[in-house]
């Protein structure tokens, strides 16, 4: 609940009573210098300089270029920012420059300005008045006011469309006609001469804001203006025209609200926060022009006064008119000044201009040109005597003396502790100072420095945030790169490990290694055997030799228990058997043409060879049916097996030397056949001994199995050759039998068998190689099958 309440305020106003504010002064107003003449229209200047920002907020973007022809009222800048209002061409002419220029500011800073050269025609652009504004949407009216470039014309230049578009409830709409500062009479003359148009602007603002009460406040030292507005508002009972006591600075926004309503605007708040909205009479006049006639804000009333001008008065000057041109219109007399000096604003709150070419803007209400002794000299400052008169005169209840000390010492943080920014810069403290200290100048300088420091701090903070954000981004990117490289490295390591696992597997159990070695040997043997078998089949078309292959295969299948020793024995024995079988076959063929006396002997030999083949086949079948409990049995020979292999040739020799076991007949063998049997037995014993030695070597060198395979194959062929050689050497009648055969003897007798054996040494070798190949193929198949079975057992 706001205090005082709305009803109590209305009751107070109805009783012609008002509230008050602390402090304040009563300076000599000297308004009679300029308020006695009507508002004048000065001549057209040679150039108009239009600043692109003439209000609180941001400036717009220039819409024209150098060389463009423009008409009066044409928009020169535009912006979509809410706190930006456009500027317009004050008259028709040509744009001759768009560049920085000195503007109306105590620091003499430059801002972007548009320089217009008038053509003298003063031709208006197309206007869009809204006479029936009550029937138009409020948002459209507010936008129209904004596009007309209207901002507050009595002080800071707050955009008018922002005030009119407030969403907060408004209890009081106040029209400020106080104009309390000395010398200034522009609002006074405007109210006297254009009261009705001010009333029309007030009607438009009331329509947009819809307040509960409307107050027109005029200082009691302006009776003519008070009477004019009373007449203009007499048909509106809701409009209250109130006379306010003359007291400086009663025209300040916060002070006037406190006088009329008794409410105080919060330090960081706005008048709308306490239900009040205030407009200057010049703003109401411009709103009426914009809505009812469609004219943008291109001119305003400016007071040119002071004892240094011959004809002080009020001029309706175009926005952008240089100060020097208005001084010329008022007949400025520089002889009355020690040095040229022009103050923009009044003597209390105005500031000295640094250049006479500075243009008039929307917030310019006075140009004061004082004489030598009219104003206090700025260089007359003396030390502070601590009289506290400044504190008594401060309308904001501050401590100007303390703020002065800290501002002068540039201790801005301490000055802010004394509420430096609550100072309204009214100048009451400086007016009453007996030491003539320009206190307001110190406060303004301190505020400007603090704002600069804040801007720099904000920029530094933003730069710091950008820097930290950049560092964070770079660090994040670095981490992402490192993470990416780490994942790539891990992927490479995993790939290398997988590759090495495939090519160089870690140590495995001996059984797995043996299986792999055996499988590799089997594949090599099978491949070699297949090649040799193809060659052998092409070189031996003999039908009887073909029939002996199954027997050899059966024989070889029994040697699956030992890849080096037993296979070798079986291969040697099979080679001997094949040689004998071939010899018997040839003898049988020869007996068909020989006398019948030799037939019995040849048949007997054939039967002996058949018996030997059957015995070997039986043995091979037994060996193939015997289970192997451990893979190492393929590489290590048992003592019983060695003995068995060692006695095997002897048994074969017995089979050849006796017929008791063969079941053929009891006829004794010839001397040559017996000798052959003994030789075969001796060869078998030697091979068995050699095989047992190789078995022990193979059991301790599994990793060299591939080399042993090649070595064994080599020795097989050499031993087969050795068997042939031994047979030929051990036979005493070889030469005789060979000679008899060479002489073409057709009588066959037992000694011819040795001749056939010796003459067919090369055939035996080739047959042995072929047989070995077939045996090796069978052994490889058996071993591969056994390895697969063992693997399945391990998996189970």
Automatic annotation (TrEMBL):
Q: Which PANTHER family match?
A: ION-TRANSLOCATING OXIDOREDUCTASE COMPLEX SUBUNIT C (PTHR43034)
Q: Which co-factor is required?
A: [4Fe-4S] cluster
Q: Which GO terms describe its cellular component?
A: plasma membrane
A Pfam family this protein belongs to?
A: RnfC_N
- Name under which the protein is recorded: Ion-translocating oxidoreductase complex subunit C
Question: Under the GO molecular function aspect, what terms does this record hold?
Answer: 4 iron, 4 sulfur cluster binding; electron transfer activity; metal ion binding
Q: What organism does this protein naturally occur in?
A: Alteromonas genovensis
Q: Which InterPro entries does the annotation name?
A: 4Fe4S_Fe-S-bd (IPR017896), 4Fe4S_Fe_S_CS (IPR017900), Ion_transpt_RnfC/RsxC (IPR010208), Nuo51_FMN-bd (IPR011538), Nuo51_FMN-bd_sf (IPR037225), RnfC_N (IPR026902), Soluble_ligand-bd (IPR019554)
The catalytic activity of this protein is classed by the Enzyme Commission as: 7.-.-.-
How does the record classify its membrane topology? Peripheral membrane protein
UniProt xrefs under HAMAP family: RsxC_RnfC
Q: Where is the composition biased (Polar residues)?
A: 531-547, 622-632, 656-668, 741-761
Q: Does the keyword Hydrolase apply?
A: no
Q: Tell me yes or no: is Translocase among this UniProt entry's keywords.
A: yes
Q: Which GO terms describe its biological process?
A: electron transport chain
Report quaternary structure and partners: The complex is composed of six subunits: RnfA, RnfB, RnfC, RnfD, RnfE and RnfG.
Q: Where does [4Fe-4S] cluster 1 bind?
A: 384, 387, 390, 433
């Amino acid at each position: 609940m706001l205090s005082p309440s709305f009803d109590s305020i209305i009751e107070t106003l109805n009783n012609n009573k008002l509230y008050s504010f602390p402090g304040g002064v009563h300076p000599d107003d000297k308004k009679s210098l300029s308020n006695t003449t009507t508002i004048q229209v000065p001549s057209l200047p040679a150039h108009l300089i239009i600043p692109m920002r003439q209000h609180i907020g941001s400036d717009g973007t220039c819409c024209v270029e150098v060389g463009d022809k423009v008409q009066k009222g044409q928009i020169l800048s535009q912006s979509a920012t809410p706190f930006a209002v456009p500027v317009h061409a004050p008259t028709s002419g040509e744009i001759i420059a768009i560049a920085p220029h000195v503007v109306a500011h105590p620091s003499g800073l430059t801002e972007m300005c548009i320089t217009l050269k008038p053509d003298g025609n003063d031709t208006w652009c197309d206007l869009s008045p809204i006479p029936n504004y009550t029937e138009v949407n409020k948002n459209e009216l507010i936008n129209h006011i904004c596009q007309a470039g209207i901002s507050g014309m009595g002080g800071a230049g707050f955009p008018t469309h922002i005030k009119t578009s407030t969403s907060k409830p408004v209890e009081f709409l106040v029209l400020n006609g106080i104009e309390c500062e000395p010398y200034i009479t522009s609002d006074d003359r405007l109210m006297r001469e254009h009261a009705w148009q001010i009333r029309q602007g007030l009607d438009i603002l009331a329509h947009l804001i819809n307040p509960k009460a409307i107050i027109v406040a005029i200082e009691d030292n302006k009776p003519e203006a008070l009477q004019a507005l009373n007449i203009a508002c007499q048909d509106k009972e809701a409009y209250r025209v109130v006379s306010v006591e003359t007291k400086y600075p009663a025209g300040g926004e916060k002070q006037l609200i406190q006088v009329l309503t008794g409410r105080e605007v919060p330090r960081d708040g706005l008048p709308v926060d306490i239900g009040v909205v205030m407009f200057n009479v010049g703003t109401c006049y411009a709103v009426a022009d914009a809505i009812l006639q469609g004219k943008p804000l291109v001119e305003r009333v400016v007071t040119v006064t002071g004892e240094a001008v011959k004809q002080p008065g009020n001029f309706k000057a175009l926005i952008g008119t240089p100060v020097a041109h208005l001084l010329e219109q008022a007949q400025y007399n520089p002889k009355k000044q020690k040095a040229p000096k022009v103050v923009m604003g009044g003597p209390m709150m105005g500031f000295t201009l640094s250049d006479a070419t500075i243009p008039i803007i929307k917030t310019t209400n006075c140009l004061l040109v004082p004489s030598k002794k009219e104003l206090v000299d700025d260089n007359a400052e003396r030390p502070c005597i601590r009289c506290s008169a400044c504190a008594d005169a401060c309308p904001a209840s501050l401590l100007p003396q303390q703020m002065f000390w800290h501002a002068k010492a540039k201790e801005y943080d301490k000055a802010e502790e004394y509420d430096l920014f609550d100072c309204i810069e009214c100048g009451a403290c400086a007016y009453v100072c007996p030491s003539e200290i320009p206190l307001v100048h110190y406060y303004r300088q301190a505020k400007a420095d603090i704002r600069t420091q804040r801007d720099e701090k904000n920029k530094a903070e933003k730069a710091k945030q950008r820097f930290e954000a950049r560092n964070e981004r770079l660090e994040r990117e670095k981490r992402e790169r490192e993470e990416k490289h780490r994942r790539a490295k891990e992927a490479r390591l995993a790939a290398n490990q997988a590759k090495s696992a495939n090519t160089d597997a870690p140590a495995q159990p001996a059984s797995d290694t043996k299986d792999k070695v055996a499988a590799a040997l089997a594949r090599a043997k099978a491949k070699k055997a297949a090649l040799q078998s193809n060659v052998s089949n092409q070189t031996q078309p003999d039908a009887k030799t073909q029939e002996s292959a199954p027997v050899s295969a059966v024989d070889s299948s029994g040697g699956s228990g030992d890849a080096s020793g037993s296979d070798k024995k079986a291969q040697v024995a099979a080679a001997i058997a094949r040689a004998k079988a071939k010899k018997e076959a040839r003898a049988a063929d020869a007996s068909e043409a020989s006398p019948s006396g030799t037939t019995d002997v040849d048949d007997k030999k054939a039967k002996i060879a058949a018996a030997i083949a059957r015995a070997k086949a039986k043995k091979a079948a037994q060996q193939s049916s015997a289970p192997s409990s451990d893979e190492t049995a393929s590489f290590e020979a048992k003592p019983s097996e060695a003995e068995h292999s060692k006695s095997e040739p002897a048994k074969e020799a017995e089979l050849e030397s006796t017929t008791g076991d063969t079941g053929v007949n009891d006829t004794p063998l010839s001397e040559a056949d017996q000798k052959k049997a003994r030789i075969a037995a001796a060869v078998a014993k030697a091979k068995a001994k050699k095989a047992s030695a190789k078995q022990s070597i193979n059991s301790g060198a599994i990793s060299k199995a591939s080399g042993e395979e090649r070595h064994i194959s080599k020795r097989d062929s050499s031993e087969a050759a050795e068997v042939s050689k031994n047979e030929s050497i051990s036979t005493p009648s070889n030469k005789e039998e060979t000679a008899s055969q060479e002489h073409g003897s057709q009588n066959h007798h037992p000694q011819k068998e040795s001749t056939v054996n010796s003459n067919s040494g090369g055939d035996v070798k080739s047959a042995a190689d072929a047989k070995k190949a077939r045996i090796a193929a069978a052994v490889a198949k058996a071993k591969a099958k056994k390895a697969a079975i063992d693997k399945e057992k391990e998996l189970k």
